Structures are given as C-alpha cells and as structure tokens.
Amino acid sequence: SPSLNFSSTATYPLPKGLATGSDRELAAGSAKPVNLSSSQGLSADSDDDNIENALAHRGILSGDYLAVGFSWTRDGTLARYTDLENFNFYIRRSNDGGQSWTQAQNLTNITDTKLSVREPRMVKTPKNVDPATPQDDQTWFLAYGTEINQYEHLKERIVNQSIYITRTTDNGLSFEPVQLLANAVGDEEDQESQLRPEPEGKTLHAIWMSLDAGTGATNVLYSRGTEAFFQDSSSDGDDDEGCSTGGSSSFSWMMLAGLLALAAVSVRTARRLARNR
Q: At 246, is the pLDDT very low, low, confident or very high (cuts 50, 70, 90)?
C-alpha cells in the first residue's frame, strides 16, 4: 500500500475528496503533531528554522508519562562540515499524555565542539510479576556514546570514543552525575551500548561493542553494575536558543557506574594480554 505522511502540516485540516474510512483519512484527521525539537516552539514547522537539526529520536512511554529525546544542534551545516558546532542530547517530558511538555533539557552538555553525542539510549525499568522485586516506575537510564566531530567531506569513517551513563529515579526531574560506562583507551573505540535494567532500578546489565582501530577487530563487552553512592552535586545550564539545559539543586546522588567501569577495564586488560601473547 502507498506510504502515508503522518507528519506533514499540509494534511490539516482533512483534505476534501478522501474516501470515508480510508487509512489516509484517519491519518489526516489526527491531531496536528507538535515539534519537540525546534527552537521556535512546539507549533513550529520544520522550515521555520532550517539551520538547526535534530537526529536520533528516542522515547519512553508509561501511561500518561512520556519522555522524548533527540540529538540537537543549532546549526546542522556547521556541525556536519566543520568542528565549530556539535550535537548534544536533549529531552522533553510530558505527564499528561502529550497535552503539555517541559522545556527541552540538555542532558549531555558537551561543550567541546570537536565531540558530538552518538547512539543515545533511553531505557526504563521493566515490569515484574514477582512482588519481591517490584518495578520502580520512576527510574530510567540514559547512555550515550561520543564521536570525533570530523569534517563530513574529509572523513573516511566515524571515529567513536567513550560511552557515558546516567540515571533518573524521579522520571527525569533530576539526573545523577554522568559517569563513564566504557572508557576508550589508545586505539580502542567503544560504541553502540545496550542496557537492560532490573525492575527495581538498582541493577543494570550493559553490553557494548569495542573496536581495536589498529587491527580492525571488534569485541562485545558485558558488564553488570549495582548502586554506589556519590557525593552531592549540582549544575547550572545555559540556554541554547530555546533548548534550555537542566540545572538542579544539590541532593544525595546514587549511581551504579563504578562497578560497570571496573568490570569493563578488567575485560579489556584480559583481552590485551591475550592479544600480546
């Protein structure tokens, strides 16, 4: 069947002459989509700001709660063809089924424009039928990789760097300090993480791909981590032309990346020893 344009503003209101009950009629009669990534606001069309760019859309849906993430830059051309701009990962949240949305919040805050965020992951705790370990439905995890921001017309391939992770235990009102999940060392590049939290949100299983750029060999690394305590922290953010960064007051943070990083270092060390024999 022909593809349907669910996002075009040209299909609102319902065009005349459509067959009653057709798929296209149902699509065209839906509520107009909101633009979650534009610096021009929720009602903006895509061409209201044709310089900015948003990629890598991610989302979490749980009842009336929605969290939508996207990698955003104020100047897509500069971010692609130079290292003068980069991409950071933002989220917006809704607690009323998408009727209203928070301001966009920058969760990565990469100020070095020679690096961009890559392969973001948003993963919520799963439900569980075992009452001994009930789901913490306020907890979800964010992980993302970084890549060297190369000139598009000169680069030979994507050069990945390290992978980072954070957690929220209040559905995105606040986030714990960002921690290293996989620290690329030497010729190594870490990328494409996958996360699986346990229902209570205090244990996380993670895998990712590690590339040895010198030999071209790839390996899949696995690690399991549980909570550790970290010192209080606070941060302030700057506005990015309508995409505000999220500051928060100090409070007690809990995080699990310490054991994850330790396990990853152990696996890498063992692999290097085997390779050098």
A: very low
The tokens for 158 are 């994507």
Phi, psi dihedral angles at 239 (to 5 degrees): -80, 140
Q: Which element (helix H / strand E) includes 270?
A: helix 257-276
Does residue 11 surpass a pLDDT of 90?
no
Residue 200, both tokens: 């209570």
The rounded distance, in Å, linking the Cα atoms of 97 and 69 is 16
d(CA 78, CA 90): 19
Dihedrals phi, psi of 225, to nearest 5 degrees: -135, 155
pLDDT digits (tens, 9 = 90+) for 122-132: 999 999 888 88
Between CA 111 and CA 100 the distance in angstroms is 29
Q: Which secondary-structure segment (H or E) carries 261?
A: helix 257-276
Q: pLDDT of 188-235, one tens digit each?
A: 888 899 999 999 999 999 999 998 888 888 889 998 888 763 333 333
Peptide bond into 13 cis (omega under 30): yes
Q: Is 65 left (phi over 0), alpha (psi -120 to 50) or beta?
A: beta
* CB 157 within 8 Å of CB 216: no
According to DSSP, residue 125 is labeled P
Nearest to 227 by CA among 139, 117, 151: 139
Q: Tell me the DSSP string of 204-254.
A: EEEEEEEEETTT--EEEEEEEEE-EEEEEEEE---EETTEEE--EEEEEEE
User: What does the alpha-carbon distance between residue 239 and residue 134 come to, in Å, rounded to a whole number?
Assistant: 38
Place of tokens 């100090």: 250
Amino acid letter, residue 200 = E
What pTM was computed for the model? 0.74
Half-sphere exposure of 270 (CA within 13 A, CB side): 8
